[in-house]
Amino acid sequence: MSTAAWSPVSLAVVSAGAGCPRPTRLLADRVAEAVCRSPAAGGARAQAEVVDLHRLAADLARSHRQ
Asked: Is the peptide bond before 8 cis (omega within 30 degrees of 0)?
């Protein structure tokens, strides 16, 4: 099967670091970039979305207590 017939690959990368400057976010960005670049070498398409839980931390903590 040729790579042209492959479906695009979707990737979700979750970053949950709370420190500043948040090295986990930097790592998440680098992992997403590397993974998206890897299939491109074989002709497949990939896209990544980084979900940053840092922004949701307060809401997540409140919902846990309820």
From this structure: no
Count of helix runs (H) and strand runs (E) in the chain: 2, 2
- Chain centroid offset of residue 23 CA: 14
Report helix, strand or coil for 56. Answer: helix
Helix (H, G, I), strand (E, B) or coil at 40: helix
**pLDDT, tens digit, for every residue of 9-63?**
888 988 887 777 678 888 989 999 988 888 766 777 888 898 888 778 778 788 8
Beta strands of the chain (E only): which ranges?
9-15, 46-52
| pTM for this entry | 0.64
